[in-house]
Automatic annotation (TrEMBL):
InterPro entries the record matches: Ald_DH/histidinol_DH (IPR016161), Ald_DH_C (IPR016163), Ald_DH_CS_CYS (IPR016160), Ald_DH_N (IPR016162), Aldehyde_DH_dom (IPR015590), Aldehyde_DH_Superfamily (IPR050740), Succ_semiAld_DH (IPR010102)
GO biological process, one term: gamma-aminobutyric acid catabolic process
Listed name of the protein: NAD-dependent succinate-semialdehyde dehydrogenase
Keyword vocabulary terms for this entry: Oxidoreductase
Gene Ontology cellular component list: cytosol
Membership in a protein family: Belongs to the aldehyde dehydrogenase family.
Translocase among keywords: no
Aldehyde dehydrogenase domain span: 21-480
Length: 486
């Protein structure tokens, strides 16, 4: 079950619409991926509830947009302070429903809260322009205004951060929002709603709809179809992103899409190998490999290959797997059986095609949804793991000899989210960074995410950027005023 919370009211089993807690005729269970235990049942809402939530957000919009940025910033700041004050409870709820180790969950709470703090500040810095007019008797002014009612659909791998990274900039800009969190992790979302209510957001500014996987499709369709909703932000898989983009075409919605990745991690011969191994371990095994910026492919120069793979395998074997609440555990369970199935498939395919297993390679002794931290060496381009997103704790390592060859291999994918490389040659650092077709490049580091850097991908990894000074632009329209008779 759920460990005892300091503030029991953070465990909510109702959804939050128009400032009120609502139920539904039917509910669905939220389970703990570590042991399958049922944690809670939450409302299984549908199309009508989605329409009501959109109407509530629409009704709340004019007054919220009319508040000063400083007023909105104050409420966002209060929400941030509450998240920090309740960080331990939020982390406990997250570990219970998502599985990540509690220290990592706490890290996500802080990371998630940082977006609320950041956009509370950024709200006050939205400004337009006064371009030099080309007419002597006319003046030109550029205003920025909130786009209107927004919708967001978020995944289970970061149950808090993926919500705040969308909701905070939207409401900072003066928009109102309807959010549909992942069916696996609604409790974190509802705890955020409870804290938002305490922070003092007016009714209808933030609305959270819970739905199971079937009903999520129905709710998603209503959010996409609605002409009232002017912006949809989605984080999830590329196939679902394509569906949502298509569904948003009739209403020409603005879109923010954070989709799949297939991050390459290149280790050049001049790299600090121990640092590269350390970066590789965090980039690969964090959240049990279930992040869209996790490395999927390691390319290691021939001259340092043997030592790198040996050290990586040694590091992988040291990772303690178990229930995220247990002391010293740094890798929890995968989210569900389907996730385990994909990992098994990628490993079996690679081994059948000649890859060498240097660590792990099978279900963990704990059984269930626990999988061993795995290292596969001598991987080749024809293996599934080199093309499809694995979303699990499997490192696939291959050898290269020239810079040109490895850049071509790294870019040979439909994805373009995160990439990483290790080198101490300053010329190479610039060259390679400029040539990688990715939205983000980690250089001599395996961790790149924070609230200040623009997060997002190119190619089929998505549209737009989240966080950073650019993140609020997604939720602002530009209006041009041309004033004659001056
Ligand atoms: P993941 O593989 O991370 O579960 P998905 O893209 O399947 O990624 O899911 C991410 C989010 O998208 C979840 O909130 C899920 O409920 C939602 N979702 C999945 N399919 C659809 C759909 N057809 N329409 C709307 N939302 C969907």
């Amino acid at each position: 079950g759920i460990p005892k919370l300091n503030d029991a009211a953070l465990l909510r089993n109702q959804a939050y619409v128009n400032g009120a807690w609502i139920g539904a005729e039917s509910t669905f269970d939220v389970t703990n991926p570590a042991d399958g235990a049922t944690l809670a049942s939450v409302p299984n809402l549908g199309a009508d509830d989605a329409r009501r939530a959109i109407d509530a957000a629409n009704a709340a919009f004019p007054a919220w947009a009319a508040k000063t940025a400083k007023e909105r910033a104050g409420i966002l700041r209060a929400w941030f302070d509450l998240m920090i004050a309740h960080a331990d409870d939020l982390a406990a709820l997250m570990t219970a429903e998502q599985g990540k180790p509690v220290a990592e969950a706490k890290g996500e709470v802080m990371y998630g809260a940082s977006f609320v703090e950041w956009f509370a500040e950024e709200a006050k810095r939205v400004s337009g322009d006064v371009p030099a007019s080309t007419w002597a008797d006319k003046r030109m002014v550029v205003l920025k205004q909130p786009v209107g009612v927004c919708a967001a659909i978020t995944p289970w791998n970061f149950p808090i951060a993926m919500i705040t990274r969308k909701v905070a900039p939207a409401i900072a800009a003066g928009c109102t929002i309807v959010l549909k969190p992942a069916e696996q992790t609604p409790l974190s979302a509802l705890a955020l709603a409870e804290l938002a209510q305490r922070a003092g957001f007016p009714a209808g500014v933030i609305n959270i709809l819970t739905a199971d996987s079937q009903r999520s499709i129905e709710v998603g369709r209503v959010l996409c179809d609605s002409p009232i909703v002017r912006h949809l932000s989605f984080t999830g898989s590329t196939p679902v992103g394509r569906i949502l983009m298509q569904q948003c075409a009739p209403t020409i919605k603005k879109l923010g899409l954070e989709l799949g990745g297939h991050a390459p991690f290149i280790v050049f011969e001049d790299a600090d190998i121990d640092a590269a191994v350390e970066g590789a371990l965090v980039s690969k095994y964090r959240n049990a490999g279930q992040t869209c910026v996790c490395t999927n492919r390691f390319y290691v120069h021939d001259a340092v290959y043997d030592s790198f793979v040996a050290k990586l395998a040694e590091g992988a074997k040291k990772i303690k797997v178990g229930n995220g609440f247990e002391q010293g555990v740094s890798q929890g369970p995968l989210i569900d059986d389907q996730a385990i199935g994909k990992v098994k498939d990628h490993v079996a395919d690679a081994v059948a095609k000649g890859a060498k297993l240097l660590a792990g390679g099978k279900l963990h002794a704990l059984g269930g949804q626990f999988y061993e931290p795995t290292v596969l060496a001598d991987v080749t381009g024809d293996m599934k793991i080199m093309q499809e997103e694995t979303f699990g704790p499997v490192a696939a390592v291959t050898r290269f000899t020239t810079e040109e060859e490895v850049i071509a291999a790294a870019n040979d994918t439909e994805f373009g989210l995160a990439s990483y490389f290790y080198s101490r040659d300053i010329g190479r650092v610039w060259r390679v960074a400029e040539k990688l077709d990715y939205g983000m490049v980690g250089i001599n580091t395996g961790i790149i995410s924070n609230e200040v850097g623009p997060f997002g991908g190119v190619k089929q990894s998505g549209l737009g950027r989240e966080g950073s000074k650019y993140g609020i632009d997604e939720y602002l329209e530009i209006k041009y005023l041309c004033m004659g008779g001056v």
